[in-house]
Amino acid sequence: MLKINHLAKAFKHTPVLTDVSLQAEPGELIHIAGENGSGKSTLFKIITGLLTADHGTVKHDPDDVIGALIENPGFLEFENVMTNLRFLAELNHRFDADRIKALLTQFHLDPASRQPVSKYSVGMRQKVGIIQAIMENQTVILLDEPTRGLDPDSIHQFINLMTTLKHEQKTVIVASHDHVAGLDYDQSLVLKDGQLANA
Ligand SMILES: Nc1ncnc2c1ncn2[C@@H]1O[C@H](COP(=O)(O)OP(=O)(O)O)[C@@H](O)[C@H]1O
Ligand SMILES: [Mg+2]
Question: What is the per-residue burial (b if ≥16 Cβ within 10 Å, else e) of 80-91?
């Protein structure tokens, strides 16, 4: 369970989040819409601890593991995809080669590829970004504009993946300026004027 209470964040003197509260239960799929610059990525950065809020709290269960894809994920550019994912998972001692291979295959990426990720397209990088957010069996998953650059079949695979995560009782929050067609959200919210409202 993720519980966000009265978050506020300003950059210099410009408020971005003024009063954001949200409660997300296991098995819930939540959408946060909002125009460019409305603060979606800032909210995700605060939830993951990349940024600190000026006010408010973020709480989750002690055994929750947070996974996130935020903006453009960074990789070891001259290494192949498996080396990258192994490196990231081993940081947390949660490397599961079979799960990673299955996820790569589902997204039509070759686990045995020797190509450096620097040669990957935007959509391919985006898929690797989605995979790193879920490959360690994370329980609270934040996906920032996850379908950016994805082709129709990959969007279809993404929708299947969201359904699987829901059945596994994961908490998933998707932020994007528009809805991903075909996804059935439990909460549909919009971030506007620094606050979350029902969409
Ligand atoms: N590190 C930062 N320093 C200053 N301003 C920032 C920083 N990060 C984001 N902002 C500003 O905060 C606002 C919200 O940005 P962001 O959270 O990236 O919005 P979104 O993800 O919804 O497009 C924008 O006006 C952006 O310019
Ligand atoms: Mg953003």
Answer: bbbebbbebbee
- The ligand with the least distance to the CA atom of 32 is 1
Q: For residue 52, what are the domain limits?
A: 2-198
Residue (of 117, 133, 122, 159) closest to 47 by Cα position: 133
Residue ranges around ligand 1 (CB below 6 Å): 11, 16, 34, 36-42
Count: domains in the chain: 1
CA of 44, closest atom in ligand 1: 17
Q: Which ligand is nearest to the CA of 36?
A: 1
Q: Report the CATH number that the domain containing residue 77 is assigned in CATH.
A: 3.40.50.300
Query: Looking at ligand 1, which residue's alpha carbon is closest to its atom 8?
Result: 42
Residue 104 CA to ligand 2 center (angstroms) comes to 25
Per-block mean pLDDT, blocks of 10 residues, the chain (199 long)? 97 96 97 96 97 98 96 94 97 94 97 98 96 97 95 94 96 90 92 96
* Ligand 1 binding pocket mutation candidate from 17, 42, 176, 195 (most atoms within 8 A of CB): 42
68 strand-pairing partners: 142
Predicted confidence at residue 130, as pLDDT, reads 98
- Give alpha helix (H) positions in the chain: 40-48, 81-91, 97-106, 122-134, 152-167
CA dist., res. 2 & res. 58, Å (int): 7
